[in-house]
Amino acid sequence: MNIYLTKLFYRLLSFILLLIIVLGAALYFMLTSTTGAKLVLAYAGSYLQKNFATELHYDQVTGDLLSGLDFDNLRVLHPQINLEASSFSSTWNLLALLNRQLNLDNLHISGLDVALISPEANNDNLVEGDSTDLKSQIDAIFDLPLALNLLDLDLSTAQISIAEQDYQIEKLSGGLTLDSS
Question: How many Å apart are CA 27 and CA 64, to the nearest integer?
Answer without folding.
Answer: 12
